[in-house]
Amino acid sequence: MQLCDLTPGEAPWNVEVVMRYRISIAVLAMFFSVSLAYRVSAASDPSPSAPSALQAEEGSWTHAPEVPPAIKRTDPRLVVVHWEAKESKMELTPGMVYETYWTIEGTVPGPLLRVREGDTVEIHLKNSPANSHPHNIDFHFVAGPGGGAGPLTVMPGQEAVLRVKATMAGFYMYHCAASESIPTHIANGMYGFVLVDPANGLPDVDHEWYVVQSEFYAEQRTAGHLTFSFQKGLAERPDYVFWNGRFGALAGNNALHANPGERIRLYVGNAGPNLVSSFHVIGAMFESVYREGDLISPPAHGIQTTLVPSGGSTVVEFTPQVPGAYLLVDHSIFRIMKGAVGQIMVGGGAQNADKAKEFYDPILTQQSAMGGHDMKGAAPEPPPLEGTERPARSEAVSARSTSGTVTIPYNASVQSQEKDHYYSPGSITVPKGGAVTWNNKDMMGHELVFDTVDLGSGTFNPGSKWSHTFAAPGKYPYHCKPHPWMKGVIVVSDSAQPLVANAAEPDPQPQSSDAPAAPLAPASATLRLLPHGSMPTHIRVREGGTVTVVNADNQKHEVMFDSWSWDFRYVDPGLILQPGEKWTHTFTTTGTIAYRCRRHPWMKGTVEIK
Ligand SMILES: [Cu+2]
What we know:
Blueprint: H1 11-44, E1 55-58, E2 60-62, E3 77-93, E4 96-104, E5 112-116, E6 120-127, E7 138-139, E8 159-165, E9 170-175, H2 182-187, E10 191-197, E11 207-216, E12 218-222, E13 225-228, H3 230-234, E14 240-243, E15 256-258, E16 264-272, E17 277-282, E18 288-290, E19 305-308, E20 312-318, E21 324-330, E22 341-346, H4 353-359, E23 403-408, E24 427-431, E25 434-440, E26 446-450, E27 456-460, E28 465-470, E29 474-480, E30 487-493, E31 500-501, E32 524-530, E33 533-535, E34 538-541, E35 546-551, E36 557-561, E37 574-577, E38 582-586, E39 591-597, E40 604-609
The structure holds copper (II) ion.
Residues 102, 133, 135, 176, 178, 185, 190 line the site of copper (II) ion.
């Protein structure tokens, strides 16, 4: 590493390092001084006693999507809350366990506490002895330094108590602000909300729900296990954008339910940690929007999409009249591909039909395979983790002799007479027991449906794959549901012959290169930096193998590794190599790490450790 070898020519790098250093010192100093000051006062008064004038009661809080009942009392109280920080694990998407799912009271988002304007809140925060990090809470409804994060800082096994006044109505975020890394603690799930009811309350509605949007930045260390990726967080490039902390928390069996004509109030939080949300409900206009969670000003009316800042909130009301699925989305719309879809299912029967028709009356419709975004109450597909393929649903394609790959090419959905335009190849033969994998390289999602057997792929998105193992010999014609002109055929032969293209096809397409099982990766590999790029651009080593980067160019390069893996935990990911210099590193965790030169961005590639 050449980090100390800075010359005047290195100004941008130098300045950045110094700035980062200064910022870290300032943040740390701030937190230490705050926590020290409070520790001293807390020590002199270890057992808090209620302000004599106020009647004490246990705080009223719920887990998402539930909201505690509206507060009807008219006197201020001392509201006592006992919460515990728990570092846990959770299945973030089906089959993928997030190992650093850090919570308040066991859930992401943390509980929703409901108090009344003028109440005093006494927070008892415990840090579970099973934890391995300090935690605290910065409450946005608190008027005081750090929102309480200083005095509430607790090490594993400790408890702290803070008493604060809820001076202003609103819907407020809280989050952990542990000084070891505030962004990491928020990204891992330590956030929730406090609803401070106005002294006069809010108008009654039929349903109140608590929904929180947030992002997850993950990397896969071992199969099925995800951990937080600091580098992806820094780049603001999330793998997942979820409602209520995990895939499908508000969809399918977890969808919200209402009846036509019922007024719905959503308390919508955005925990970030980075993205600003363009909150929208597909099929509804908001009759009232308490912008940015402001419950003091009169609400705005007639709004389609409202901004929810990171670390902020909104409160919206609407009354669906027509039965069906209403989707909660971030209308920064590609995020629906990262999981940002929730569902409100509005039921209803014949008694509502006339009323519904007044609002929504399909006069002439076609039997269309393109379902729009009704989503019919089905849970959406889990998003793939960046840099990985979605695992096939059936048996893995294991050997070339019994498997085949069909590519769905770019622009495949456009109608064409050309051979193999829709599928490459359009017809393929595998022996019985053979697997076929479809690889979607189009810009559209596709859904394969088989004509003679009850078999379908479900929607699979651009960049993902779907596999199926064919046990019985026969001919299996299929087509794409949203693009019915996309027809293909799979022939399953009775023999155990190796894979061949269908005899009827004079010009078989070569098989995709990802079909054969790969041999064990080499124990070491060398990556050369050359004037026009790096060679090779993709290198593979086995787990525990070493990679040597050689600067074979006549100018300096700065290699940035685009991953925060354990391998780089104590190493700065930026590597400066002078001409002729080399650097060797042992990679102990599997995965694919992209790299590029900071000065020559076209010089880039990937290192795969497997
Ligand atoms: Cu924390």
